[in-house]
User: Which sequence fits this backbone?
């Protein structure tokens, strides 16, 4: 029986806590948050939970709160990650989060630090830390690893996430607007020809067709973990991949790009009639918060849903027996209305929260027992099968196709146009694909 503390019980943290409350291997859950109401509201609905108001800005507070726990689930913003990891080591607990740290030393350097010094710290104590394990990063990473394992060598990994859920009530983001806007305004990362490169926000736009959407949509580069971790692990886990990119599209991207071009996502003060104002502070002050509680989500849905569009595609290109192949994997889950009707969650909270809960369940069940710090693409075949199987039970499935091409045409998205693809090939059956079902793609959020 394991004792767990969930620090930060927003949409994703609360989803994990609810799922662990159902797990027979969990004896107690501490729901900790700076917002006492959030912690108490959640814990009151869970038979195994107690509420705790926690200021995680002081590592000693976290250590005191987590003392005696077997696992710390971190649902806080990225700048808390290393502090909470330090607390995990202090109390001899394993650790989990949904996105890697972004320290002042740089995003790539932060992950290098995790894979070296922090890996050795956790390994020395016989503990496991799994970082960046939600939907993307998280599910996208194990989908990628699953595809690359079918190749002899990998050339290009492209991850495309498109979200265009529009409601009559202005709801620009279904997760923290503060996190969303800062991510949008940050430089982008890609792994190109074996090197990590940075670029300006909203760079390298393309138009592309995605399943379930009846028109081409615009996608741009976006700051994300996958090009960083996959580049660092190219030779160890991903068949020597040379190029990795992450592209994002939809209403939130369009809005953010306009604000960025106007200078409104800047943290540099500007003079407005003699008063210094930080543009980003103004935007965050005026932006409506993401709906947090079921009654807030229901009110938005009742006001009217204008559109539910989404796509989550992992495209992996490489070679098998010297033949160029491409594997497209779509992740499919419920849209806004369906997610709320079945779980009381938004589409965003459902996908990320349920994916995260499966990774946490995997740790509770000791389905992955390697010691040290890991990211999802490092999970072995059995651990990946565990995750896919449990996600399928939650209505999150993977639709995967493979095609062979006579001449490999490009390195990164945005290069020369693709030529005609031959007929799809059929995979050999195995335990990891047996439970996957063919579906008609409509939306992936």
Assistant:
């Amino acid at each position: 029986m394991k004792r767990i503390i969930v620090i930060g019980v927003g949409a994703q943290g609360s989803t994990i806590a609810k799922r662990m409350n159902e797990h027979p291997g969990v004896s107690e859950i501490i729901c900790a948050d700076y917002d006492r109401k959030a912690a108490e509201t959640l814990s009151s609905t869970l038979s195994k939970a107690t509420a705790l108001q926690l200021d995680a800005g002081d590592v000693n507070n976290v250590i005191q709160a987590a003392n005696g726990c077997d696992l710390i689930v971190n649902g806080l913003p990225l700048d808390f990650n290393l502090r909470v990891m330090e607390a995990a080591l202090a109390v001899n607990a394993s650790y989990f989060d949904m996105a890697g740290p972004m320290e002042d030393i740089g995003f790539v350097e932060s992950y290098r630090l995790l894979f070296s010094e922090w890996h050795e710290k956790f390994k020395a104590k016989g503990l496991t830390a799994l970082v960046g394990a939600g939907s993307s990063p998280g599910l996208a990473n194990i989908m990628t690893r699953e595809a690359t394992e079918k190749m002899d060598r990998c050339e290009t990994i492209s991850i495309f996430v498109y979200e265009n859920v529009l409601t009559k009530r202005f709801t620009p983001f279904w997760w923290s607007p503060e996190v969303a806007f800062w991510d949008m305004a940050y430089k982008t990362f890609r792994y190109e020809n074996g090197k990590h490169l940075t670029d300006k926000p909203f760079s390298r736009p393309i138009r592309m067709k995605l399943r379930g959407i009846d028109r081409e949509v615009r996608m741009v580069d976006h700051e994300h973990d996958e090009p960083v971790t996959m580049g660092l692990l190219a030779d160890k886990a991903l068949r020597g991949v040379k190029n990795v990119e992450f592209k994002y599209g939809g209403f939130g991207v369009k809005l953010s790009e306009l604000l960025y071009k106007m200078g409104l996502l800047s943290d540099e003060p500007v003079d407005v009639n003699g008063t210094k104002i930080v543009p980003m502070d103004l935007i965050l002050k005026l932006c409506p918060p993401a709906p947090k509680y079921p009654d807030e989500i229901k009110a938005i849905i009742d006001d009217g849903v204008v559109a539910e569009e989404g796509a989550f595609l992992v495209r992996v290109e490489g070679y098998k027996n010297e033949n160029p192949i491409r594997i497209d994997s779509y992740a499919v889950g419920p849209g806004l209305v369906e997610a709320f009707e079945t779980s009381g969650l938004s589409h965003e909270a459902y996908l990320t929260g349920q994916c995260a809960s499966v990774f946490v369940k995997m740790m509770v069940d000791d389905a992955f027992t390697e010691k040290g710090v890991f990211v999802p693409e490092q999970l072995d075949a059995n651990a990946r099968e565990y995750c896919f199987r449990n996600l399928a039970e939650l209505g999150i499935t993977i639709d995967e196709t493979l095609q062979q091409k006579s001449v490999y045409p490009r390195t990164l998205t945005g290069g020369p146009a693709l030529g005609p693809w031959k007929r799809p090939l059929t995979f050999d059956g195995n335990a990891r694909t047996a439970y996957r079902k063919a579906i008609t793609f409509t939306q992936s959020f």
Summary: The first helix runs from residue 11 to 21. The radius of gyration is 21 Å.
